[in-house]
Specification:
Blueprint lengths: L15 H8 L13 E7 L5 H10 L3 E7 L2 H10 L6 E2 L3 H9 L3 E2 L29 E13 L22 E4 L2 H11 L9 H14 L3 E5 L2 H7 L5 E5 H10 L3 E4 L5 E8 L1 E2 L5 H11 L2 H10 L8 H5 L3 H4 L14 E2 L8 H13 L2
Parallel strand pairs: 1-2, 1-3, 6-7, 6-8, 10-12
Antiparallel strand pairs: 4-11, 5-8, 5-9, 5-10
Helix pairs in contact: 5-6, 6-13, 7-8
Amino acid sequence: MDCIGRKECNEKTISYLDYVYVYFGLTSCHPTRGENTVRVYNWGEYINPQALKLFEKESVYKVIYETYASNEDLYVKLSSGGEAYDVVVPSDYLIQRCIKEGLVQKINKDNIPNFQKVMDELKNPSYDPGSQYSIPYFWGTLGIVYNGKNIQEKLDSWDCLWDQKYKGEILMYDSQRDSIAIALKKLGFSMNSKNLQELEAAKDALVEQKPLVYAYLADESRDVMVQGDADLCAMYSGDAVLMLEQNRDLRYFIPKEGSNLFMDSFMIPKNAGNLKGAEAFINFMCRPDVARMNVDEVQGYSTPIKETYENLPKEIKNNPIAYPDLSKLPPLEVYEDYSDVNEVYYDLWAEVQAAL
């Protein structure tokens, strides 16, 4: 290794990529890019570092691993045509957009035999018919977490986030897509609505709700709820599982009006420099034992690999938050590409933020 550990790297001279590389304990702070490397761009804290090291050990490739904080960050990189990543991990609606804009390439399943290990119900998603461009990595649902110690009535609807009696105890996502989607679903519309009247109604509902909201947050909502500083928040299931483990008073449910089923998936960018390496990496990550390593690291989020799921401990496999029976849940929608109304969303969200 060029750098033995983080402490031996001068923070004034080392790049962000160097930090990521050293953190994950990979081969070099300044790896050579080429046919023997695989460039992976993924969400932060969303993989087991040991899985990366095992891939390097078992293959002829070295991994250059970088992270991003949002789908939008990933889209900027892909659409700019600058960085040539070999594997990326976008969410459903960005997957659809990347396909439409020709930013990714079809995946040759013959070179990824472990695709057959993916649960059948997670194949052939609406945003990628036939799973031609994407292979599932993690999945989950969007619901509501609430404090059962302070709220003893049965909750079953998005309406609770608009209930006056919970004023000052409600957290909302600081995200135009999630918050507008929640308001749409509360009003009985599709989370993917592009109808301007429906979107305007959702905006009005969020403006009406605003005086009740304690704060608009992102990941910070988890700690606020666990600490008992708020009683209600919208939350993705992966985070909800950990929150309920940390605070036994918390509860999670999917509102009766329906909600979001999310999927983060592997894709290969159009300008990938190492197609064989990308295919080898994705196939490796779909291997049941490797998928288990990632499940153990990224606790709470759900594996799409059937064999991995079947061999999980009972307390995890039978957790209805992490692994619900999808056939028994309220209607779920995956987020679809909304880039053609992105400016509308931006303007509506700006109005919500500006409301007194």
